[in-house]
Amino acid sequence: MNVHKLKKPIRKVPKFNGEDAERKFWSLHDSTEYVDWSRAERMKLPKLKPTTRTISIRLPESMIERLKVLAHKRDIPYQSLLKMFVADKIEEELRSAR
């Protein structure tokens, strides 16, 4: 028996008026009804710009060591924990400025 004959027919993806409409559509629909993922091919997108930018910041060794201890307790890289701390503080400052 051919498995492909048992599959549901692929439905046509509608046209969207914007990213918000498309996001809402995909949050409510199963993509397997619209895309035959068994035929998908891996793509490389070499010209994408990273969403982050590398910076250099000087911190005291003792601060880095304490940060590493805290990060180890959470089982995450210390750089990620530092980003979380900075993001939290920025949000806190912006909320208090209102």
Topology:
Elements: H1 19-28, H2 61-74, H3 78-96
Helix pairs in contact: 2-3
- Low-pLDDT windows of residues: none
Average pLDDT, all residues? 89
By secondary-structure content and strand pairing, the structural class works out as mainly alpha
Provide the domain count: 2
Multimerization state: single chain
Task: Assess the beta-strand content as a share of residues.
Answer: under 5%
Q: Whole-number radius of gyration?
A: 23 Å
Shape: elongated
Largest beta-sheet characterization? none
How many helical stretches? 3
Instruction: Give helix and strand order, one letter per element, not per position.
Output: HHH
Percent of residues in helices comes to 40-55%
Quick structural summary:
The chain is mainly alpha-helical and 98 residues long.
Protein described:
The chain is mainly alpha-helical and 98 residues long. It has two domains: 33 residues, no CATH class; 36 residues. Helices cover 44% and strands 0% of the residues. The chain has three helices and no strands. Helix 2 packs across helix 3. It is elongated and about 60 Å long.
List keywords for this structure.
mainly alpha; 98 residues
